[in-house]
Design brief:
Number of helices: 5
CATH class of the largest domain: Mainly Beta
Radius of gyration: 22 Å
Helix content: 10-25%
Order of helices and strands: EEEEHEEEEHEEHEEEEEEHEHEEEE
Number of strands: 21
């Protein structure tokens, strides 16, 4: 049976479905620890736009869009922009995953945590954001722990830090975690959105002996094409992190990957600011985490894979590790490595074949 896509429009606060629109030129992405994007067009020529409730179901900031792929929700997020071209009679909507809502929410009351598990703090941040009037968008929040305890963490009201940045900074610690908001249908067929927290990360771990690990092969395999990037401008082996305080009293931590300089790499430095961090251990963990994560030029692999060829789209998720095997002019002696899926880009292909592009990054785990 052919893959079928449906696009459901909902009210952000009530989550009530208020329209279903036949969108075209659709493209959506998913991102680990960030908000993916969605774009889609609706040609209004000859369409009963009033009957379809087009205007009321696409209001930026108030309405959400869900993507149903053959009965399974595969994407959900808030519409942030719509553009109408009267000459072409075309409406374009742009949305971002539900994580983007917390980019628009600010910490307005000081939050203080002492000797709390990092995942407990993460859950508390989202709970606090949703506890104020008109701030609850229905994110289901789990109760999980990581065993990593943060000695002291304060988010000051006068900084008006976004909840997303607070969550993201916490996740970047050397012993940090992954986060994602996953959409799915409940038992009654209603869309749900659930905060996922994974320590040390989300997704399945690579195993050379596992028969179920996603495997992508070129040639004579399931890779249509790929792009490989190593970006030395983002490489850093020493990070200076500043925390709370001012002038000589400012908290400072240095993170390094000494193995790189010892093996012949030049000193590559960067600095970052966490003005609300009062815990020196946490600040050191953030500095070390960034230095270790980027001490070698970040490697990114983008693979175009048919969604209907094993491993089929839907059998792998953000955070999963995958095996990549390539033999071509760039890898003449065969590359057989372990990469991690950190992004998905999907074009439903109403005018051509469905297309899935996976973004993977190297990992030694």
């Amino acid at each position: 049976m052919a893959t079928q896509y449906r696009y459901l429009l909902a009210d952000v606060l009530t989550n009530q479905i208020i329209a279903e629109l036949s969108l075209t030129n659709v493209n959506f992405t998913q991102q680990l620890n960030a908000a993916g994007t969605f774009t889609g067009d609706l040609l209004l020529s000859g369409v009963n736009s009033a009957g379809l409730n087009v205007l009321n179901s696409t209001i930026p900031g108030r309405c959400a869009v869900y993507v149903d792929r053959s009965g399974v929700l595969v994407w959900g997020g808030i519409i942030w922009q719509r553009d109408y071209d009267s000459a072409a009679q075309n409406l374009k909507i742009t949305a971002r995953e539900f994580e983007s809502y917390f980019e628009r929410r600010r910490i307005t009351s000081t939050l203080s945590y002492t000797n709390q598990d990092q995942l407990t703090i993460a859950e508390s941040l989202i709970q606090t954001a949703q506890a104020v009037p008109y701030g609850n968008i229905g994110i289901i929040i789990p109760s999980t722990t990581s065993g990593v305890v943060i000695g002291s963490q304060v988010y000051y009201s006068y900084e008006f830090k976004t909840y997303f940045n607070a969550l993201s900074d916490l996740a970047k610690n050397n012993n940090g975690f992954d986060f994602n908001i996953k959409v799915a249908y409940d038992g009654d067929g209603n869309p749900t959105k659930t905060l996922q927290l994974g320590y040390p990360r989300l997704g399945n771990t690579y195993s050379a002996t596992s028969a179920t690990v996603p495997t992508f092969i070129l040639p004579a395999g399931n890779i249509v094409q790929y792009k490989y990037t190593e970006d030395g401008t983002k490489a850093v082996n020493t990070v200076y992190a500043t925390g709370a305080g001012s002038n000589e009293a400012k908290l400072i931590a240095t993170g390094t990957d000494a193995t790189k300089t010892a093996s012949g790499w030049p000193l590559l430095e960067d600095s970052t600011n966490y003005s609300n961090i009062t815990d020196s251990t946490l600040l050191t963990g953030l500095a070390n985490g960034q230095a270790l994560a980027a001490s070698y030029p970040p490697q990114t692999l983008q693979i175009v894979a048919p969604p209907f060829v094993d491993p089929v789209f839907g059998t792998y998720n953000l955070g999963d590790q995958a095996r990549v095997v390539i033999t071509d002019p760039f890898y003449p002696n065969e590359f057989d490595g372990n990469f991690r899926i950190i992004g998905l880009n999907v074009s439903p292909g109403e005018k051509g074949p469905e297309r899935v592009t996976l973004t993977l990054t190297s990992t030694t785990n």
